Amino acid sequence: MITVHLKYEIDPDKLADFEEYGRRWVKLVDRFGGNHHGYFLPSEGDSDIAYALFSFGSLAEYEQYRTASFTDPECMAAFELARTTGCIRRYERRFLKPLDTGK
Fold first, then answer.
1. Helix (H), strand (E) at residue 84
2. Residue 44: its pLDDT value, please?
3. Angle at Cα 42 formed by Cα 38 and Cα 46, nearest 5°?
4. Right CATH number for 2-96 from 3.30.70.100, 3.90.180.10, 3.10.180.10, 3.40.50.720?
5. Beta carbons of 93 and 4 less than 8 angstroms apart
6. Residue 103 pLDDT
7. What pLDDT does 101 receive?
């Protein structure tokens, strides 16, 4: 399994736009066979940092999703929402794997 950790720097004045962006991607990742663990929005502390976590069974499955997302109409609409609203200033992507506990 591979888990993608996204850290977003968002425009706090466009939080509603970012929330809509997140709602779309939760459904899209799940539709493409992943397991979205949610978006985590600013509360206390930094007002411009948000996170998202989602998993796929393997890096290859993630790559298939990534490739398909560039031509899928719903994914393209989500990308366009972020671009036109400017709700995302920048983001970082990390790939994580769970600890094998030997169980």
1. helix 73-85
2. 82
3. 140
4. 3.30.70.100
5. yes
6. 73
7. 83
At 100 the pLDDT is 83
**Across-strand partners of 39?**
52
Residues, the chain, total? 103
Using a 10 angstrom Cβ sphere, with 0-12 exposed, 13-18 middle and 19 or more buried, the burial of residue 15 is: middle
Hey, where are the domains in the chain?
Answer: 2-96
- Pick out the chain residues at pLDDT < 70: none
Query: Locate tokens 């992507």: which residue?
Result: 93
Which residues neighbour 61 within 8 Å (Cβ) at sequence distance 6 or greater?
2, 33, 34
So what's the pLDDT on residue 74?
A: 97
